[in-house]
Amino acid sequence: PTTSPFLHPGPCSVEDKLAIIHLRRDLQLPTILRQRDDDNEGYVEGKVVNTRFGSFPHSTLIGLPWGSQVRASKVDTGSRGRRGKGDEKKRKREESEAAEILTKRSKLAETEDDDGEVSTPPTPKEGAEVVAASSGFIHLLPPTPENWTISLPHRTQVVYTPDYSYILHRLRARPGTNIIEAGAGSGSFTHASARAVYSGYPEMGDVNGSTTKKRKRGKVWSFEFHEQRHMKLEKEIHDHGLDGIVQITHRDVCEDGFLVNGESPNADAIFLDLPAPWLALPHLTRSKPPPLKGPNGIAPTDSVSNGDASPKPFVSPLNPSAPVHLCTFSPCIEQVQRTVSAMRQLGWVDISMVEVSQKRFDILRQRIGIDNGAQRGLQTSPASVDEALQRLVEVEGNLRNFHEQGERTEGKKSEKINPNNREKILESLVEKKVYKEGRLVHRTEQEVKTHTSYLVFAVLPQEWSEEDEKRARAEWPIKI
Ligand code: SAM
After folding, report:
1. CA atoms within 13 A on the CB side of 1
2. Nearest Cα to 189, choosing from 364, 37, 329?
């Protein structure tokens, strides 16, 4: 069984395994936790992750329950600490930037926190070598395809979670499925499909619910023709413990098809994220395909070279005893047209196109009260503060009326603030933090990423001979 933290994260972070350092929702750092400092960074504490929220020695991150909040440490740079004047300036600038970001972040946390409290980070685990808490904190998360997609090193455009969850669902990817993926690119889809087809969860038993029978092992057959990308992904898959589940081949699939060392992947599902998927389709047939007509007019292949010049008989890369589900991912409608044309000629049916359009809603509690920043603004822009003050007094008044008299007074004109009471009101509002009673509001992301790609789905039915029909009739106890 695999020990991949993506599939079996266990209860705690483990040395030499991947963990995700969560700084903010959109800012996460994947890190393999190592006690020893192989890169010789020169920290007394060993290996250290430096973030804009402070420094985190790996020793403070290993062996913690997933989800733990960890405080930054003051780290000792040892001999490496002798820096030049320029370095000192840079360090000071970085520190002040970090402090600024932290202030902003804690304000955000105040608005975001559901119960209105700013949570205090817990004390780090016993024995952790935290010298002294410095600036900020992080959360430690187990890796998942979702947080890996957000944090992975981008080598290409990637397929994001809203698209790949829908694609895997339509491809009927499930434990035991063999899925072909080309091109693999940065491996975002690879990780999501590896989790979908993995069949080694002990609690699952086999497809019939029994734990004694052997479950069909699913696999991701991944192809990438760019050498460096192929090498990087191969290393990542190894580092993530996914070797047995993902098999990566360095190959131009449009030229050389999908057999691996002459062996068929026996694919039940296919995902093509390629610039010209129609060139790969003639390799995804059940028997030798006819020459394609129209702009896709390319010669059919009856052999897979694999560097071997002698022609071999046609071997299909598809599962012969099940319908095969296919998805292609193309940004332009012209690519879709050419793909659909090739699909029709090659016998694919049930062809449809979908575009996934994701919109994110931010839900937060509208803060009532006034903070020190606004108080400072009093000196610079009294007019705008007056306006804000008037609004706050109104909201406060509405709330008071509602709580004391059960009367809703929103929208009613309230009295103007007496300028003599201005300072007093301001002070009382600063004291109060009534945002538990604040109104829940939502707003959509300002920059909505609309178009990613068009998803074309199709099904290649199982071939059905007379013998198959006879066998089926003999097996099924139904009379027609
Ligand atoms: N789906 C990937 C992900 O989620 O990270 C991203 C794929 S990227 C957009 C497309 C990849 O296809 C590139 O890395 C490119 O090198 C590869 N590619 C293009 N044509 C190919 C071909 N004929 N055979 C194999 N790979 C190919």
Report:
1. 10
2. 329
Q: What is the CATH number of domain 148-359+451-475?
A: 3.40.50.150
Count of beta carbons in the 10 Å neighbourhood of residue 7: 18
Give the C-alpha separation, 365 to 349, whole Å.
Answer: 49
Series of mean pLDDT values for 10-residue runs along the chain (480 residues): 87 94 92 79 74 90 96 72 52 60 48 33 38 69 96 92 96 97 97 95 58 75 98 96 96 96 96 97 88 60 47 86 97 96 96 90 65 49 64 68 65 67 67 56 62 93 90 76
Q: For residue 284, what are the contacts with CB-CB under 8 A and spacing of at least 6? A: 180, 258, 267, 270, 317, 318, 324, 326, 346, 460
Closest approach atom of ligand 1 to CA 156: 8
- Report the atom number in ligand 1 closest to the C-alpha of 254: 23
Ligand 1 lined by 220 (C-beta under 6 Å): no
Q: Where are the domains of the chain?
A: 18-143, 148-359+451-475, 367-438
Of all protein residues, whose CA lies closest to atom 17 belonging to ligand 1? 183
Provide the 10 A C-beta neighbour count for residue 54.
22
Expressed in angstroms and rounded, the spacing between residue 363 Cα and the centre of ligand 1 is 36
| Residue 417 DSSP symbol | P
Q: Whose CA is nearest to atom 23 of ligand 1?
A: 252
Give the number of other CB atoms < 10 A from CB of residue 417: 16
Strands (E), 206-338: 219-224, 246-250, 269-272, 324-330
Residue 187 near ligand 1, beta carbon < 6 Å: yes
Ligand 1 mutation pick, 171, 273, 283, max ligand atoms within 8 A of CB: 273
Instruction: Report the separation in Å between the CA atom of 175 and the middle of ligand 1, taken as the mean of its atom positions.
Output: 25
Write down the residue that tokens 């945002």 correspond to.
435
Ligand 1 midpoint to CA 226 (Å): 8
Pick from 317, 327, 224, 223: nearest CA to 270: 327
4: tokens are 């991949």
Which ipTM value was assigned to this complex? 0.99
Q: How far is the CA of 274 from the centre of ligand 1 (A)?
A: 5
